[in-house]
Amino acid sequence: MDKRIYWVWLQGALGCGYAHTGRLLRTFGSAERVWLADEQALRAAGLTGAVLKKAMNKAVDKAGKQLRAAVACGWQVWTPDMPEYPAPWKEIADPPLVIYATGALPADWQQRPVVTILATRRISTSGLLLTGKIAAGLATGGVIVAGDTISGGDAAVMAAVASVGGCGILLQPCGLDVSYPKTTEYLRDEIVKGGGVMLSEFPAGTTVRKENYRLRNRLLAALPHAMIVTEAPDPSGTLQVARLASTNGRDVFAVPGDLVTHAGCHQLIREQAMLVRGAEDVARELSIKFPSLDVKLVANAEQTYVPRPPKDPVKAPVKKKSLRAVTHREPPEIKLLPTEPLPELSVADLPASISDNAKCILPLLTERPQGLEELTEKTPLSLPQAMMALTELELCGVAESHAGGRYSRKG
């Protein structure tokens, strides 16, 4: 019998993130020996209540079914006794007993620096650009970048990694067969096909739940040698992940952003996180442990990186509404206040490579700073698309970002 079944069985019995998993493994050495243990031995190891009851159920039919389903999907199934299993996770109190993986990491990946980059949903356009540059610079230098594609900022990180041919690790808060979010499915495919990997401790069919993020985040905090947090607000779940990484002995870097909107990163800096101005700052620190890391290569790649526009998101089909009789009413007359005409800004003055999304946003920019949502609601674009479009326009010198995530025409 495939011995991975015992690991799948034990993960089902204990549940993901069980606080005493590490202690149990130190006592018994393997999942198979836990399966063979009697009630007295399990009690002596600290199991009680519902967990003990589940551990006493020695049926492995469900575990076998889960393992076969993963293999049928073409996934790899890693357990703590396998060389593929990430070594840093063996050191935490609640290590995952089963990791489902799709993709293939370089053979030497556990000897290379790994950095988790977390970019929050409230990231500014300038922060989005800087975070992408940091990710591109580090990935070009051979650093493995860990994260996800859930928010616009996190997606920008992985888009940068993919565009420079770097290696990425994606940690999902759901089963690998659940495409979440659907809008960045193409990006996850690019990371996997480009020599990266997508990982999850959740079996096939597990949907996204709030508690899954907490479980996933403990792995994001334990996996890397360092963590970078960009423009985190306070309070923020990102701050908790960063503090957990610090507790695990990982270096924490912060890209601060606005004092009010992104107060969380300023708090991290007060708590001894290192201030980041660019990828070179991070590379210099990493080069202490990894002397072969080429700091100049990282810095040059950061300076030359230009973000690409994201692909159009996959939109859900529109549900047809039933027709019913309505009373016709004339719309009220709308009186517009006179405004001073602004000088025309022609798309023809911009580079030929400018994206359609940037062309869509361009005429909406005014001398008055506008919030991202205010700009986006006037277009068919999603927030991540609008952020990337504004980044393009900033690079062209026609847009300017302001505190509080607002944007205007640059005079």
- Stretches where pLDDT is under 50 for at least 5 consecutive residues are 321-328, 334-342
CATH class of the largest domain: Alpha Beta
Taken together, the total number of domains comes to 3
Total count of helical runs of at least 4 residues = 17
* Biggest sheet descriptor: 9 strands, mixed
Q: What structural category characterises the helix and strand content? A: alpha/beta
Number of strands: 12
Question: What name is given to the CATH topology of the largest domain?
Answer: Rossmann fold
Radius of gyration: 24 Å
Question: What is the level-2 CATH architecture name of the largest domain?
Answer: 3-Layer(aba) Sandwich
Explain what this protein looks like in three dimensions.
With 411 residues, the chain is an alpha/beta fold. It has 3 domains: 4-86, no CATH class; 104-304, Rossmann fold; 347-409, Winged helix-like DNA-binding domain superfamily/Winged helix DNA-binding domain (Arc Repressor Mutant, subunit A, Orthogonal Bundle), CATH 1.10.10. It is built from 17 helices and 12 strands. The strands form 2 sheets. It has a 9-stranded mixed β-sheet, with helices on both faces.
Structure summarized in a few sentences:
By secondary structure, this protein is α/β, with parallel strands linked by helices. Helix content is 40%, strand content 12%. The protein has helices at residues 4-14, 21-28, 31-36, 39-44, 49-55, 61-72, 125-140, 152-163, 185-193, 210-222, 237-247, 263-270, 279-289, 295-304, 356-361, 372-376, 383-395, and strands at residues 76-78, 99-103, 114-119, 144-147, 168-171, 197-200, 226-230, 251-255, 274-275, 370-371, 399-402, 406-409.
